[in-house]
Amino acid sequence: MQLSIDDVISKAIDAASHDLRKLSLAIHDNPELALNEFHACKILTDYLKTKGFKVEHNIAGLPTAFVATYTSSVGASGGLQVGFCSEYDALPGLGHACGHNLIAISGVAMFLAIAAVLDKCQIPGTVKLFGTPAEENFGGKVIMQKAGVFDGSDVLMIMHPTLGYSGTWHSQCCQKMVVEYFGKASHSASAPWDGINAGTAANIAILTMGATREQLNPDWHANSIISTGGQAANIVPDYSRIECIIRVSWAKDLKVLEKRTLNIFESAALATGCTHKVTTEFAYLDNQDNPVLGKMYEDIMWDKYKVPPTFGQGASTDFGNLSQSFISLHGNYDLAGTGAPNHTIRFAHDARTEKAHENTLFAAKTTARVAARCLVDGEFWNQVKSAHENRRKD
Length: 394
Hints:
By secondary structure, the chain is α/β, with parallel strands linked by helices. It has helices spanning 5-28, 38-50, 100-120, 140-146, 198-211, 251-272, 291-305, 319-323, 345-350, 354-376, 378-393, and strands at 54-59, 62-71, 80-86, 125-131, 155-162, 173-182, 186-187, 221-228, 235-236, 239-248, 275-280, 327-334. α5 (198-211) crosses α6 and α7 (291-305) crosses α10.
């Protein structure tokens, strides 16, 4: 009897469902912030090792990054290298309010499914699971990409719970900046004229950003907080600190808004006599899903749920940087049908439910089916590559 690839995928993921549920709950109940996901990394890699997979640790200098690999028993020659990503970092104060416990197990599920396809259907190729820490901060994937970790991948895929379904999600570019102002301390009553007020510099910067907001394009955002403004009201503060995030829809606009924001920071320093220092982290670029892969994903979702895809913006991901270079799919799926938005307490609650688990595994099966078609359908794969090249030219 000829093996059905869809059956192989479903059976592989269904067989692991109980274990994946345990992993998901263990990660959810022990939220860890960026670059400190030691518990999550350990239980995921321990599980993969029990299944006989090769696992590499401490990837790109990140102690909580890993890569698991499986190569077909008939070899890799002539086949593709398919990569999936897992995330497992939490949000400060909110825990897994972005569902990274589910993104973690969806990556494992897809990896197991394609490993089974390569094995049982005797298809040449390699599948890798990339354990990518620090998505919510620092950009773990960007660090790994710069180190060449993803080199050799023909296609990269990830799943993300949210509101609704989409295989053609265009995220926003995101740049985080920290500005520090350095002044001179003095007594605020007896000798304020001897001080240089770093707190005032921070306030001027924040107020100026607000005043110029109406001149920004509708899809441009600049959001800031004063994380340090001073220590006591009777001391002219000699130090202040602002955390700022700017977002735009397209990479070409990021430098424009960044320059505008840097000018505001500098003007606040000049107005108060402070010196200042700006620290810039890696930019998250806009996600650009491959339209051929995205359409197949959305078609399967439509067959299952009879709802049209959603095309929301406003969020950012370091997977966007991968999509700029690699053929990719960032498949979004509905968390639990409650309408809870990401980064809320309700979303964190829903990410622990059985419904969220069921939706995650169906989304993983869907994406694995898309990946498997790349492996076995040469005409489809040519269409995917052609769409990727056309997008790069545009």
